[in-house]
Write a structure and sequence with these properties.
single chain, about 40% helix, four-stranded antiparallel β-sheet, Creatine Kinase, Chain A, domain 2, alpha+beta, globular, 22 helices
Length: about 500
């Protein structure tokens, strides 16, 4: 029996931080110690962790409160919430509590979380990047070795990433649907029309980051892996062949496959083979990232699981296995239609779709004035509800993809980024997507789509509201501060 989508729900919630007085982008200092004390007062037993001698996060049973790429961009990864625990409603309660905690911890720094998906007036220059970048070992590979322009995301570009569980046998179908219909999410949750203090001409400028980051990468495949392919994925084997196939270069691989994705001591494979070539080999020469010493890496099933983060599309299938496959079993399964699904089902796979298209969005005073408190209170959870509804209603969602056409939908993404709901086709798609999502939700879950309905009905996105504010304060000497105070997050 295939489990219903959304048996567990998670969320990766990114939050742009700014000073309350001036509106300037703000790297936190002392924040995590205060956050740990707030959580300890509720007996949550927080664990404070550090990188290179700096506090970078707090872990409790409910999730991990940390940082994305910079000290000016908070990120909370919520632990999965089961349907028995309350599903969307319980996740919404945890989101509200986390926002309350974040705002309380930021108060001592004179800072706040902003309702934006990109800080409106922050530099991207190298000096700022060096000053606020989180010192993760993985950035040595991405910036120093692969030559990504990582600093184009250092101005608080923030997304709201719903994580919706899915049976492995439905994973490719769900991934195709969320990817193809992403232009609707891009438009509905557009919230970044400004960059470096200027209007960009985009309603969701945040999503220009991937093209800019990978355009001059050392490996052309890195840029290729942020563009939707020309057809849907036939199954998970097809998905992994696209991700790891000819023209791509394997990421740095860990000496120990069980090590964490962002902290492992790794090996650069010499000659930059694709992961497919590496997995087919008896072993591959490489250089250690920490010492430069020559080593030979022998492929293991765990290397395949470790490499699942290699692309930057609008959705990923993320998973973990109770036990890694043998190399031979993986090689054989990868050649058979549905073989990965069959193999993984027997290995205790737990997987979910991570949506990456929705921009960060929250309640603020401006939205409460425009839409009312009840609608505003659903803002942060609306992307989760939308994705859940689509994945629960896969047959109708696939019909919608066929009706619109995969390639047409791929082309609409650029229109959604630039024009959001001002584009007639994008607006029509958003209406269709909302209707299908509503059909997949239970009656008591539909209220979490209220913000999305409001945006589509009024054709007024977070980006449109921000532009109105920005233009209204054009003559003010303290323009940025005034705008940011109006967009300070209200934990409703």
């Amino acid at each position: 029996m295939i489990a219903r989508a959304g048996q567990t729900l998670g969320l990766e919630m990114e939050m742009t931080v700014a000073r309350r007085d001036t509106g300037a982008s703000h790297p936190v200092a002392g924040y995590f110690g205060r956050l740990a004390r707030i959580k300890a007062a509720r007996d949550e037993s927080p664990d404070l962790y550090r990188i290179a001698g700096r506090d970078v996060g707090v872990t409790v049973a409910a999730g991990d409160s940390g940082l994305d790429n910079g000290f000016n961009l908070l990120e909370t990864a919520f632990a999965p919430v089961s349907s028995e625990e309350g599903g969307l409603a319980e996740l919404g309660r945890r989101v509200r509590r986390e926002l309350e905690d974040a705002q309380a911890a930021l108060d001592a720094e004179g800072a706040t979380v902003l309702n934006v998906s990109e800080h409106p007036a922050c530099t991207l220059d190298p000096a700022w990047y060096s000053a606020v970048q989180v010192p993760r070992p993985i950035y040595r590979e991405l910036v120093g070795h692969r030559e990504w322009l990582h600093r184009v995301g250092i101005d608080g570009k923030a997304q709201n990433s719903p994580c919706t569980s899915i049976d492995v046998r439905q994973a490719a179908r769900a991934l195709n649907v969320v990817l193809a219909l992403a232009p609707a999410s891009v438009a509905i949750f557009a919230n970044s029309p400004l960059e470096n203090g200027r209007e960009t001409g985009f309603k969701e400028n945040r999503l220009t980051v991937w093209d800019r980051m990978f355009r001059y990468s050392r490996y052309a495949g890195d840029h290729y892996l942020q563009r939707l392919p020309e057809r849907p994925f036939a199954d998970l084997g097809d998905y992994f062949r696209w991700m790891f196939g000819p023209g791509t270069a394997s990421r740095c691989l860990p000496l120990t496959p069980e090590d964490g994705y962002k902290s492992a001591v790794g090996v650069y494979l010499q000659g930059s083979p694709s992961l497919t070539r590496f997995m087919a080999s008896d072993g591959w020469p490489g250089l250690r990232t920490d010492t430069g010493a020559a080593v030979t890496v022998v492929p293991q099933g765990g290397h395949f699981e470790y490499s699942q983060f290699a692309h930057f599309l609008d959705a990923r299938w993320r998973y973990r296995l109770e036990s890694p496959p043998t190399l031979q079993a993986l090689r054989e399964a990868w050649q058979r239609p549905g073989g990965i699904e069959e193999l993984y089902a027997g290995l205790g796979v737990v997987g979910y779709i991570e949506g990456r298209a929705p921009g960060a969005g929250f309640a603020d005073a401006q939205l409460v004035d425009d839409a009312g408190q009840a609608v505003a209170a659903t803002t942060a959870m609306a992307p989760s509800a939308l994705q859940l509804g689509l994945m629960r209603n896969l047959d109708e969602a696939e019909d919608l993809v066929r009706d619109w056409g995969w390639l047409r939908l791929r082309g609409l993404r650029a229109d959604a980024m630039r024009h959001a709901l001002d584009d007639e086709a994008v607006c029509a798609l958003a209406q269709d997507v909302l209707a299908v999502a509503e059909g997949g939700l239970d009656a008591d879950e539909c209220r979490w789509l209220d913000y999305a309905r409001y945006v589509v009905d009024t054709r007024s996105t977070g980006a449109d509201r921000l532009l109105r504010l920005w233009r209204a304060h054009a003559a003010d000497a303290g323009r940025l501060g005034a705008v940011c105070r109006a967009r300070a997050v209200l934990p409703l």
